Amino acid sequence: MRIAAIGTERLRLEPLAVEHAEEMAAVLGDPALHAFIGGAPYSPEALSERYVRLVAGSPDPSVLWWNWVIRVREEDSLAGTVQATVSLAGPGVECAAEVAWVVGTPWQGRGIAGEAARGLVAWLRGQGVRTVRAHIHPDHQASAAVAAAAGLAPTAHVHEGEIEWELPGQA
Fold it and tell me: Is residue 84 a contact partner of residue 101, using CB atoms and an 8 Å limit?
């Protein structure tokens, strides 16, 4: 299984590269983006260091770290990221992915996150990933709407204060 670019109607999800850090630091620079996830915006240098680690991949060979930047084709600008942490299948175990997304403040409210998440989930399913989950803060209505747009539904499971969302019909 290898990461690849993903195309949707308006977007191109490009595999993350260290070279994206400077532009992404500006995209993700609004402190309000951290209201539900904690932390603070990264400087371009700190984000570059983080991207070096992400691009290198997981130190665990049974886990894949797949990260994409979201490019809005019409504007030719980056607008956010989507990611999947994929646990590879072992004997009698299906591949599973934990997915997440973040879209910069200027691009919010335009359906970009939902379109990117739908594209990501469809691509993962095409790669043989059978279980797709996201963890969403119970007060984060916008992220819940993105999860629903991607076909996920809330479950009764709560992990570290966040509701687990999953594609219906999965174990």
Answer: no
Residue indicated by tokens 């335009």: 110
The parent domain of residue 103 ranges over 6-166
Nearest to 87 by CA among 114, 63, 106, 103: 63
As given in the structure block, the two tokens for residue 110 are: 């335009």
pLDDT at 74 over 70: yes
The reply to whether 130 falls in a domain is yes
User: Which pTM value belongs to this model?
Assistant: 0.93
Phi and psi at 158, nearest 5°, equal -125, 130
Interhelix angle 112-126/141-149, nearest 10 degrees = 40
Instruction: Give the pLDDT confidence score for residue 38 in this predicted structure.
Output: 83
Residues 10, 74 contacting (CB under 8 angstroms) = yes
* 16 domain-assigned: yes
- d(CA 79, CA 10) in angstroms, rounded, equals 12
Instruction: Give me the pLDDT at residue 90, please.
Output: 64
Q: Are 97 and 86 in contact (CB under 8 A)?
A: yes
